[in-house]
Design goal:
The complex is a heterodimer of chains A (about 300) and B (about 120).
Chain A (H helix, E strand, L loop, with lengths): L1 E4 L1 H8 L4 E3 L4 H8 L5 E6 L18 H10 L7 E5 L9 H15 L7 E4 L2 H4 L5 H7 L4 E5 L2 E5 L12 H12 L6 E5 L18 H8 L4 E6 L6 E5 L2 E5 L31 E8 L4 E8 L4
Parallel strand pairs in A: 3-4, 4-5, 7-8, 8-9, 9-11
Antiparallel strand pairs in A: 1-10, 2-13, 3-12, 6-7, 10-11, 12-13
Helix pairs in contact in A: 7-8
Chain B lengths: L1 H20 L1 H5 L1 E8 L2 E3 L2 E5 L4 E7 L4 E5 L4 E5 L5 E5 L5 E6 L12 E7 L1
Parallel strand pairs in B: 1-4, 3-9
Antiparallel strand pairs in B: 1-2, 4-7, 5-6, 8-9
The chains are: A alpha/beta (about 300), B alpha/beta (about 120).
């Protein structure tokens, strides 16, 4: 079962300028109370370095740098930053792929925060099963715990068929066994872990297997990219939140006959490009999402 | 004489059984679709609701995928073989299909349409 939740619904719930993921979080309270420390992190996605159509984004070479500057200017610096895939725009040339990954790495080296995590998207990794990506950023799936919250980075993009795959599912099952069923879990991934709009390839073919493994866990949140727009969907008990992209927006699912980047609007430069701040609260155990725009120089 | 009458009766019964039990196979329509980076040929086919179809999918270059979510049809298109998918369209309409195996810089433009008429 899945239910779309729009931003307004979240705002109605919270009365705040942020999206708060409220659920019955008794387990969170226990897990986070031990640390008694709020923290925040930032999610950036779909930076597509190498994309170069000026009709879609005349500032294709400068948008990521502006996003980096915007993160650096946040009044409170995040504990860490995560990029949820499609760091680069696809190319059939292996050397060019590495060049683009190097360009991306050089641009984001300006981040003040030095704890930066990376996930591949299909544009980075599907043509070589993640080989070039791993040369630059290491493993494509991993887990870490930060102040009581369990983060699991899942790779659903290195397999060209958009599969998580049996080997990674087995690894995920092993990781989950170590986690309390009530503890907060955040899945970081590139593609939605549900059939958002398969006609546009907006799904993960074996997402059901992932959700089955996650089903016993009471406080799971999925943060992903891929669709270049905000989207909030409830799948069972799990909320899944898509982030804006940082190169071009895409149309709402099924809203036009063919999926294609939305052309640049000179009246609204950088419209619908942005990144997300996530605030993990310990006193009132929730995650609050704040969407930040990219602004021109 | 008696044996051959039995044989004829048996053959007629089997033929009748085959026609009633497997009518679809008798009427199956074959549609061939070829994939290559980054297009399907043809990229539009018209089918008739209720008429069984076998799609014969081949690729000229590399692994592709064929996915038509509206009709719940999916198959890998593996090189060096004919990949077959059997189905019977149960509703009329237009249903897009696409390659769901990332195949390169034009992958996202690799799609087509199945039109099912009443």
């Amino acid at each position: 079962m899945q239910a779309g939740l729009d931003r307004r619904e979240f705002l109605k719930l919270t009365g705040l300028g942020t999206v708060v993921l409220a659920s019955s979080l008794c387990g969170w309270e226990r897990a986070l109370a031990s640390t008694q420390e709020d923290f925040c992190f930032v999610q950036l996605s779909d930076t597509h370095i190498g994309f170069s159509d000026p009709k879609v984004n005349p500032d294709f070479a400068g948008t990521l740098a502006k996003a980096v500057a915007a993160v650096n200017s946040l009044s409170k610096q995040p504990d860490f930053v995560v990029f949820t895939g499609d760091l680069t725009h696809t190319t059939d040339d292996d050397a060019e792929r590495r060049k683009r990954l190097a360009q991306f790495k050089a641009i984001i080296s300006a981040l003040k925060v030095k704890d930066v995590r990376f996930l591949p998207g299909e544009h980075d990794a599907a043509l070589d099963n993640g080989k070039a990506f791993m040369e630059f950023f290491g493993e494509t799936h991993y887990a870490f715990t930060h102040k009581g919250v369990h983060f699991i980075a899942l790779d659903n993009a290195s397999d060209p068929g958009s599969l998580v795959g049996d080997a990674q599912l087995q690894w995920l099952g092993g990781e989950l066994k170590r986690i309390d069923k009530n503890a907060p879990v955040v899945i970081l991934t590139h593609r939605p872990l549900f059939a958002l709009y398969p006609e546009w390839d907006w799904d993960t073919r074996d997402a059901d297997k992932v959700l089955d493994l996650l089903a016993p866990y009471q406080n799971v949140t999925v943060l992903y990219g891929h669709i270049h727009q905000e989207n909030h969907t409830l799948t069972g008990k799990i909320t899944q939140h898509a982030a804006h992209g940082l190169m071009y927006p895409l149309p709402a699912p099924g809203s036009v006959p063919k999926k294609a980047p939305i052309p640049w609007d000179p009246a609204q430069p950088y419209h619908n490009l942005g990144f997300r701040g996530v605030q993990a609260k310990t006193v009132q155990p929730t995650f609050a999402l704040t969407e930040y725009p990219v602004k021109g120089a | 004489m008696r044996a051959s009458r039995w044989t004829v009766t048996l053959l007629l019964s089997l033929s009748l059984l085959a026609c009633t039990a497997f009518p679809a196979m008798a009427q199956e329509r074959v549609e061939k679709i070829t994939a290559k980076k980054f297009e399907f040929t043809p990229n539009e086919i018209t089918l008739k609701k209720g008429v069984p179809v076998v799609l014969e999918l081949t690729t000229l270059d590399r692994l592709h995928g064929f996915n038509c979510p509206g009709l719940k049809i999916r198959s890998d298109i593996k090189p060096g073989t004919v990949n077959t998918v059997r189905f019977t369209p149960d509703k009329a309409g237009e249903f897009t299909f696409h390659c769901d195996t990332f195949c390169g810089s034009g992958h996202e433009m690799m799609h087509g349409k199945i039109i099912v008429t009443e």
